[in-house]
Amino acid sequence: MLADVLGDMLKAAINTLKTLVDDKPKPLSHDEPKSPLHVGEVMDCWTYLIILQEAIDFAKIGINTTMDDEVRNMLREAIDMCESQVARLKDFMRNEGIPLPSLSPPKPKSEPDAVPLGVKMADGELANNIALKVSGAVLSATAAATKSIRRDVAMMWVQFQSEQMTFGGTLKAMMRRRGWIKIPPYYYPPGLPN
Question: What pTM value is reported for the model?
Fold first, then answer.
């Protein structure tokens, strides 16, 4: 069911993007370049790359501190997805001539037993923080897709968004099963029958 919902959302996003760009771009001659990126598209690349790198760093810190195998596996999946997106985004940026931002150096490995309890985050905190990073990445990719003029750029953002949402659905299922999901108070309108 989740796959159907995500598939419908992806189709809707693609149809929306098609309306934002010319369906029949003029063919380029071999010496005619693609239209350059506008400054908003460049800034979106920078911002998203930093979001991904922070998510990778956070997940690596989590792996260094948790002893829960399911949480470690979730964090490794998050790292794999983000590293894949980082590689594709960096290639795209290099091909477009966009200088890469400076990023934090990688985190060294450590043993969870060696980390003091006052420094460790609980497993539920790790999951909720990864969920926040996924939400931020989805929103950032969505905003970037709507601002993109070139179809190839917009489709890159839709692909990133789809991957983040798919991972987010798996993460939410784990959090719900483990009782870690943060739910605001329920709202019952006045006069609603019990």
Answer: 0.80
CA dist 45 and 60 (Å) reads: 23
pLDDT tens digit sequence for 137-186: 999 999 999 999 999 999 999 999 999 999 999 999 999 999 999 888 98
Let me know how long the chain is: 194
Domain ranges of the chain: 38-98+118-182
CA R_g for the chain: 20
Cβ 160 vs Cβ 136: under 8 Å: no
Q: What is the pLDDT of residues 79-110, one digit of tens each?
A: 999 999 999 999 999 999 999 988 888 878 88
CA angle 147, 11, 45 (to 5 degrees): 30
- Within the chain, strands assigned E span none
Q: CATH number of the domain at 38-98+118-182, out of 1.20.1260.10, 1.20.1250.20, 3.30.1330.10, 2.40.50.630?
A: 1.20.1260.10
Amino acid letter, 83:
E
Cα–Cα distance for residue pair 21/176, rounded to 1 Å: 39
